[in-house]
Amino acid sequence: MEQQQATATPLDDTAGLDDTAEAAGPIDVEQAEAAIVEHYPRLVRLAYLILPPGMGRTRRVLAAHALAQRALPRNQSRPEAQEVELPWQRGTKGAAGDAGYAYVRLRVLRSALRAARPRRLWALTAPLPLVWGLRLFPRSGGADELALDKALSELSGPGRAAYVLRELERLEDREVRALLQAAGVEDARDALDEADEVPEPAGSRDDGSLLESAEFDPCSLQARPTDLMRRRQHLRALLVTVVALVVCGSLLGMPGEGWGRSGAAAPSYARNPSSERALDPDRLTRAEPAAWRTATRADFSSWPARGDRLGDTALLRRALAVWARPGRSVRVSATAGTQSGPPSGPPQLLYAGVVDQAAVVLLYDGLRVARYAEGRGSESGAVALDLARLDAADAAASTALVLGRADGNVRYLAAPWVRHVSVRDLLRPTDRPRPVRLAADGVTGPVRTMPRLRPCRGWPALRFGSRLVADLGELAPARLTYGDPGARSRGGPRDVAGRAARFDWARTACRLPVMAGRGVRSVNVWRFGTQRLPEAGGRAAWLCTRAETWRDAGSRVLAQFQPWNTRRGSAGAVAAAADGSPACGPRAPRVLAGVLWKARSGHWFLLAAGSRQVHGIAASGGVRGRSHGRALTVPVKPGAHATLTARLRNGARLDALR
Q1: Which of 37-61 are b and which e, b meaning 16 or more Cβ less than 10 Å from the residue's Cβ?
Q2: Residue 259 pLDDT > 50, yes or no?
Q3: Which of 324, 462, 551, 567 has the smallest count of CB within 10 Å of its CB?
Q4: pTM across the whole model
Q5: DSSP helix/strand/coil, 362
Q6: How far apart are CA 137 and CA 144, in angstroms?
Q7: How far, in Å, CA of 466 to CA of 167, rounded?
Q8: φ/ψ bin of 142: left (φ > 0), alpha (ψ from -120 to 50), beta (otherwise)
Q9: Where are the alpha helices (DSSP H) in 375-512?
Q10: pLDDT > 70 in the chain, percent
């Protein structure tokens, strides 16, 4: 029988453009305002990409918004480059809308190029906009975005502008030259030649330009607090100080000798003895090499310190200082629910060494793992700080940590009790796993994980010993399990092993991206029912996928309907989804879900199934039907709506997952 599959095609607002158009006639304030409001995210992204990366991500985000808002003229204005053909925005309908966008885009481009010149960053200090008490920055991307951002940082302002206009606005070279000349660039050809030197990003270009990713979207932001202790200690000074420069000067003037250089860390704000002890590299705790063999609880606290830079005191000092007070140039990321403040005491050292030409330090304070990474040249290279909440971990959840990501590959630090590592494609359950090299210090070879191919054609998962994990873009990979969460006699969900577990995961792996960015600890798949399809349509499986997080909140549940005669490896249809629901978990190991299904004959049916506690299912609303078992099949009309309820064996009522 046929299964209806819904596909979503992303809208491309740069497709089907007119080539160029002259800016005809004066542009009034209302027309310019309409263009800014309609295309505000694109204008802000354009300014963000052209501004110099060295100014810091938070300041760069606010400056990009300021430049886009200042593009509004004060009165009726005639485009200042009438003799130049200004390219329209591609996909905008109507000459008036194109002329308005071309005009404000030119103003944003000119302002961004002026600000990118040396000694012109003072122009971005106007109070528009202002954010107090928060650091705002776009979401971190993958290795491809990081490589592109580094390549753009090495270009001049006109070179970045040429690359952005070509890749983001999809303009031709002659259009880019005309627009750069109108913006005041003296040699537009040199700017284009400079843009040509940017290497082609890795991966498929069918997915669109990397400049359109969340890494370069200053309108979709993450918010983190500034240093809370510093704000509290200087609250009295802030109340009586009018000029912010006086406060900054007092902070910079505080004594700081005796600690050595702290790299990318912000200035020291206090001489608190407890804080200083937490930042002293000589006080770092280190587990004994064989502590994990005799530890009562095998978790991250029993990991020994490993790596070839354990004695590099300067590196450890910089890592601790940046964790306590990251400067503006530090790229900070934290999983959901993770506090970004400094450690309360001396943390434990897990790793210090060189990984893919970057110095990496892993620290653990009992609640969080911090990953500090710096490029070549500790004082001037790129610095990143990643934080993840990993408390209450056990041996199954503490099998590995991410050491580094480069060129789409990931290197892990395996737990000391792991002896063998392999990689398996979840979408090919019959293929044999491929071994991964594991060094003596626990560092794995490079592994390509979390593929970006669309549609999903493969999903690699790593097996550390008997534990199967998947990379969801965070510091700790998510453990993959299989089984009934209420089967206490069998210990609940267990490791993925056996034909049924591998084949059910093959139909579920492509749903893993919806779990990313939530601080996921484990993902369990449970086949809670099977059902015979009407009109000799074969059979279908009902699966429940539940993602648990490290903070015990923010869980996600998916109920999937999977006919067995569909193409192997194709993802099941999501019948229902819920956030924060206890369904399919140890607290509520039960679930009810339903879908509308179309047979080969064209007839439609309401199909529903429940877990083993269900003793009857009823449909009400636009559909009437009842069954006395765990499955329900009712003929319906297309587009029918129904409310499902189930009766449990103990007489209780169960509503459908939603």
Answers
A1: eebbebbbbbbbbbbbbebbbbbbb
A2: no
A3: 567
A4: 0.61
A5: strand
A6: 18
A7: 45
A8: beta
A9: 499-506
A10: 77
The pLDDT tens digits for 611-637 are 999 999 999 988 999 999 999 999 999
Q: Which pair of tokens denotes residue 256? A: 């700081």
Q: What is the pLDDT of residue 121?
A: 46
Q: Between β-strands 573-579 and 520-532, what pairing exists: parallel, antiparallel or unpaired?
A: unpaired
Question: Which of 55, 211, 202, 69 has the alpha carbon at shortest distance from 137?
Answer: 55
C-alpha span between 568 and 449 (Å, rounded): 21
Q: How far is CA 328 from CA 116, 175, 332, 369, 581, in A?
A: 18, 36, 9, 21, 38
pLDDT class of 102 with cuts at 50, 70, 90: confident
- Helix, strand, coil share of the chain (percent; to 5): 30, 25, 45
**Mean pLDDT over residues 48-71, rounded?**
86
Helix, coil or strand: residue 81: coil
When comparing pLDDT for 549 and 26, which is higher? 549
Specify the length of the chain in residues.
658
The first and second tokens of residue 253, run together, are 């003037």
Between β-strands 383-389 and 331-334, what pairing exists: parallel, antiparallel or unpaired? Answer: parallel
Distance CA 592, CA 397 (A): 29
**H/E/C letters for each residue in 594-606?**
EEEEECCCCCEEE
DSSP 651: S
- What CA–CA distance (Å, rounded) separates 430 from 227? 51
For the chain, give the longest Cα–Cα distance.
82
Question: What pLDDT score does 349 carry?
Answer: 97
Residue 610, burial from CB neighbour count under 10 angstroms (0-12, 13-18, 19+) = buried
CB atoms within 10 A of CB 149: 17
How far, in Å, CA of 97 to CA of 94, rounded?
Answer: 6
Cβ(511)–Cβ(561) below 8 Å: no
What CA–CA distance (Å, rounded) separates 655 from 658?
A: 9
| Structure-model confidence comparison of residues 429 and 144, the more confident one | 429
Output b/e per residue, 4-30; b: 16+ Cβ within 10 A.
eeeeeeeeeebeebeebebbeeebeee
Average pLDDT over residues 337-341: 87
Name beta bridge partners: 520: 549
Pick from 263, 285, 282, 480: nearest CA to 383: 263
For β-strands 604-610 and 631-636, DSSP reports them as: antiparallel
β-bridge partners, 331 = 384
**345 in Cβ contact with 278 (< 8 Å):** yes
d(CA 257, CA 242): 29
